[in-house]
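Supplementary Data S3. Sequence and structure tokens for construct A.
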Amino acid sequence: MFTSRRSFFAMCGAIVFPGVSLGEIIRTPWQGEGPFYPDRIPEDTDNDLVKNGHSTIEAGGKILNLMGSLVNRDSKPIKGMTVEIWQTDMNGVYLHTGSFRSKMRDDQFQGFGRSITDKNGHFSFRTIIPVEYPGRTPHIHLKLLNESENVLTTQLYIQGHPLNKEDFLFKQMTKGEQKINSMKLIKNNSTEYETSAILVV
């Protein structure tokens, strides 16, 4: 479930889930990891993917501030979980040697990052709005880890993007799951966007 930053933090005290069916919270759906999980984890794995290493030059693309909260099906926050994301740069290139158009990769884009959920289950990333590449609608891969245990692997999509309806993985989800995994992008100033998520495991 994605909403505006103001609404998200207002809900943290008493979480409300529009993705509810017959009184049950819908869990965030599993989706495939895909072939482009980084085959070389970068030295810089922090939650700011727009700046790579010690460089002061920011990656190209539209900046997206992704904030989230991880809860269980009783709406209780889960702390100490590792959240990983990976995605393409502005040219549709992954941090992977087998990626499409690998020679066009934006080296200023970290491509992969980690964030640890705090006592309230919160996590955050500074990244860019994903772009499409051949055969896929724009998306961000997300994985939750409890130490080495994979708790969830999923993909986050842009709400209302015209390529969603043709994407083979997006179409595999139910309408409710599609809603849960769709990001509503809010422009917070002249150059940056934000979105907020509640993940249920």
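Construct B, processed identically:
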Amino acid sequence: MKRIIAIAHNTFREAIRDKILYGFLFFAVCIILFSLVLGQLSLGQQIRTTIDVGLFGISLFSVLIAIFIGINLLNKEIQKRTIYPVLSKPVSRPAYLIGKFLGIAMVLLVQICLMLMVFFPLVMFQGGEITFGLVTAVVLIYFEVLVIIAMALFFTSFSSPFLSGIFCLGLFVAGRNANLIAELAKQEKLEAFAPLFSGVSTVLPNLYLFYPSGKIVEGAYATVHAQFISSGYLYSTISYGLAVTAAFLCAAIIILNRRDFL
């Protein structure tokens, strides 16, 4: 356990020094601030617009940061061969990968907190409140980010940085639209492709569950900003996210164990 914590701490320190990270953060803050302008332009929907655009910015740039760091850190150590002395010590490859994951997860937690230091005051400035639904949206964003980190480590364990980035972005976009793919399977005009669409929607990680706005409550057209979002939905989605994260990490560990570094 001490080795995992040490690797996580070193990963956090290494990632937090990356200047590109602050570039992502800068653009995220710009989008959050721009939501104030869009809110003023909307008629009677200022708070709603600010919240939707702000959450979109937090979600988008958190995912981009997760993909960038998840791919870059592990690949850098493989390319520069700094992974060799680490694995030559009494550090198992599962412990190494889990440490990397926890370190990146801490970085993203800090980044999201920094974004919220701009977003929450902006919502209150517009006359809104920090409701349970709004906090729920942020929690769901973070657990989606954990899935993305594990996904990035998985693809990096066997592929190049460029291809890993393409795979991650592609799977993220497809996962966000998993519900639409499932709906296509029910269309009569596409009946011939129903098994294909159904199979794809089943295999894909359903990232739409973490989307902080839209029709995500059973039988109701509601947003996660509302107060009546059930705690059961939150717990089940978090459990699903942790299960998918664990699956990607286990797959990455299996692949990493089979690679010959020494």
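The chain is about 75% helix and 0% strand. The two ends are 23 Å apart (CA to CA).
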